[in-house]
Amino acid sequence: HSKAVMWPRSTCGTQPELTPSPHPPRQLLLLGEKVQKEVKAVLTESATLTCEVAQDTTEVKWYKDGKLLVSSRKFKIETLGKTRRLVVGQLEKKDAGEYICEAAGQKMTFKLEVKGEQCPGDVEQEWCGDQGQQAFPDP
């Protein structure tokens, strides 16, 4: 026969009131000048979005058009010291859009633009170049 398990009774409604902190929230995201907020990339290549944080331990979440991203073959989420990176691989037209790096409610927004032409009806070749010219010709 099993012993009766005693669970502590619920203490609903007896929790202390949370008082607002006198200190302003710490800056978690470093919105530095060196951060590129508009990113241009080429079809079938990869794009890297970089977000600097104030501490090595700061966790960030990445969103694409409001949807939470998880690490996968398509999206690689990397942590390196105080740098948080999202690498979007094998770019397609649908990857263009708004990406957000979020740390504890603070957000940084990136706009990703994908250049190049999708080949009509040709599954093998993923993008059509202009007769072998580079997508970004040298100035």
UniProtKB/TrEMBL annotation:
SUPFAM superfamilies: Immunoglobulin. The lineage of its organism: Eukaryota, Metazoa, Chordata, Craniata, Vertebrata. Its main location: cytoplasm. Residues 1-22 are annotated as: Disordered. SMART domains: IG, IGc2. Residues 16-113 form the Ig-like domain. InterPro entries: Ig-like_dom, Ig-like_dom_sf, Ig-like_fold, Ig_I-set, Ig_sub, Ig_sub2, Obscurin/Obscurin-like_Reg. It comes from the Eukaryota. Keywords: Cytoplasm, Disulfide bond, Phosphoprotein. It comes from Zonotrichia albicollis. This is Ig-like domain-containing protein. One of its GO terms (cellular component) is cytoplasm. It is found in: Cytoplasm. The keyword Protein transport does not apply.
